[in-house]
Specification:
The protein is an alpha+beta fold. It folds into four domains: about 120 residues; about 50 residues, Roll (SH3 type barrels), CATH 2.30.30.60; about 90 residues, Alpha-Beta Plaits (2-Layer Sandwich); about 160 residues, Sandwich (Jelly Rolls). It has 18 helices and 16 strands. It is elongated and about 120 Å long.
Length: about 500
């Protein structure tokens, strides 16, 4: 009953069906639209079976017509895939929206159906078209809402106010466009919730597109600062924080606006640009974190209502006492005794250095110093830990070490004014003791002999670091050259 061709077609159908199922489950296997090819082969199998059955002989011509129609559709579908969809995938460009693809294919299928029926059968096409027109009117009245969404979907494809991947907001619904169908547009929110919005609702209402005309957008953050802080100082501190954030664009540069004088604070508007709307809440959160630490390091307060008005003078005196108590409890002098370049100095000198030092706190992820910047301070880690990053030959910064409690960095910048040779970034909330040139110069001017001790110690440390790094020891500076640099930098005769 079944010939060889039958079994060959059946094997091909099973193989293609298995391929289609696997391509749906495994992303590594390319998804090829071969379901019409499978359907055509199935009609061929049915036709071969009907040919041998007497009762099915009258259906054989119709099966042949159906087979010809499906074959023409399969050829059209594969042609569309090979010449339109596949090139877009290979070039990694956005694929056509479903509604555009379906409209093109539906038009092709309709034309092919009419052509095949015209040449393969004796069907009266005039009667079919007349019946179809009447049926269209009946269906149109019964599905006005669906047709409205369909027409709206076509309008969206013509005007293209947004595309796949764009972030839009319609009333309270906000998300990334992941699909546009005949009936609705699909949005994926930041909470990974899928929202279906009828196309008719989109065309009848105003909406925001955060991805047009380009991905760059202006973000705003508001903050209230105490009246005692000079606005220019506040601006400089916040700008420094913004310039350190990797996702804040340098062009156009960020800016700070003084918005209003409130009852207990001056309100500032922080404006900056970035190109990642999906990550907008986290970027603003990171900046708020870092602004808090930066303001605290610069003794700038974010005031509380009422309390700052009535207890301000008491609070100021309390802060001074708290700062003194803080230094005492931190045992700054004892920690400086662990630093090699200060260990050889007398206890009296270390006490003077400790009294003139500053304690600053940095949040996790903040940059303490940047490679290549001009520095004039030494940093001693009191609590927390930091990562040291070095950029070589203009490449990306690589982490080379981790430093913790008692470790220090920036000694060359403090004593010779040389540029910083590595970037240091807080890995966790970190507290550091800062000794800058301005305070340290008074000590050197009062005790010029210290410069000789420091030069010898610094030369020895540089030699040890050079040996650890595998460099030639002869390239490291001598103690005499170090002493000369220190004296020149601090203007010591």
């Amino acid at each position: 009953m079944f010939d060889t061709v039958f079994w060959q077609i059946l094997i091909v159908v099973i193989f293609l069906s298995g391929y289609t199922l696997l391509s749906k489950r495994l992303q590594k296997i390319p998804d090829i639209p071969i379901w019409l090819v499978i359907l055509y082969l199935i009609t061929r199998i049915i036709a071969s079976i009907a040919r041998d059955l007497t009762w099915a002989a009258e259906w054989a011509p119709w099966i042949q017509v159906a087979s010809a129609v499906i074959l023409s559709w399969a050829i059209a579908r594969m042609t569309f895939f090979l010449f339109i969809e596949l090139p877009l995938r290979l070039r990694k460009k956005k694929e056509l929206p479903n509604i555009t693809r379906d409209l093109i294919l539906l038009t092709c299928y309709t034309v092919l159906l009419v052509i095949v029926l015209r040449f393969k059968s004796n069907i009266n096409l005039t009667g079919i078209l007349t019946t179809s027109a009447v049926l269209t009117v009946v269906v149109g009245f019964a599905a006005q809402t669906t047709l409205s969404s369909l027409i709206s979907g076509l309008m969206l494809q013509i005007e293209r106010p947004f595309g796949l991947g764009d972030w839009i907001k319609i009333e309270e619904k906000q998300g990334r466009v992941i699909g546009i169908t005949w009936k609705s547009t699909r949005l994926l929110t930041r909470e990974k919730i899928l929202v279906y919005i009828p196309n008719a609702e989109i065309t009848n209402k105003s909406f925001f597109n955060y991805s047009r005309p380009n991905r760059t957008l202006v973000a705003r953050v508001y903050i209230g600062i105490e009246y005692g802080a000079p606005p220019n100082t506040v601006k400089d501190v916040i700008i420094q924080v913004l310039n350190q954030h990797p996702q804040v664009l340098k062009i156009p540069p960020p800016d700070i606006y003084l918005k209003e004088f409130g009852d207990f604070a001056i309100t500032y508007e922080i404006r900056f640009c970035h190109s990642n709307f999906a990550n907008d809440p986290k970027i603003k959160s990171d900046i708020n974190y870092q602004i808090w630490y930066a303001l605290r390091r610069n003794n700038i307060k974010i005031p509380f209502p009422i309390r700052d008005v009535h207890l301000n003078h008491i609070e100021r005196r309390f802060q001074v006492k708290a700062l003194e108590a803080q230094k005492s409890s931190f045992n700054v002098e004892g920690l400086l005794g662990q630093v090699s370049i200060f260990a050889a100095l007398s206890a009296e000198i270390r006490t003077q250095i400790a009294e003139r030092s500053v304690i600053a706190e940095y949040g996790a992820g903040e940059f303490i110093v940047r490679q290549g910047d001009q520095g004039d301070s030494l940093y001693v880690i009191r609590t927390g830990s930091c990562g040291i990053y070095v950029r070589r030959d203009g490449k990306q910064e690589n982490k080379i070490a981790t430093i913790k409690h008692g470790d220090f960095f920036g000694e060359m910048s403090l004593l010779t004014g040389e540029p910083i040779t590595a970037t240091v970034r807080a890995m966790v909330d970190t507290s550091v003791i800062i000794i800058d040139k301005e305070n340290f110069s008074n000590i050197l001017n009062d005790n010029p002999a210290i410069s000789v001790q420091l030069g010898e110690i610094l030369a020895k440390r540089q030699k040890e670091l050079a040996e650890e790094a595998g460099r030639i020891v002869a390239e490291t500076p001598s103690s005499s050259s170090m002493i000369a640099k220190i004296k020149w930098f601090f203007r010591i005769d």
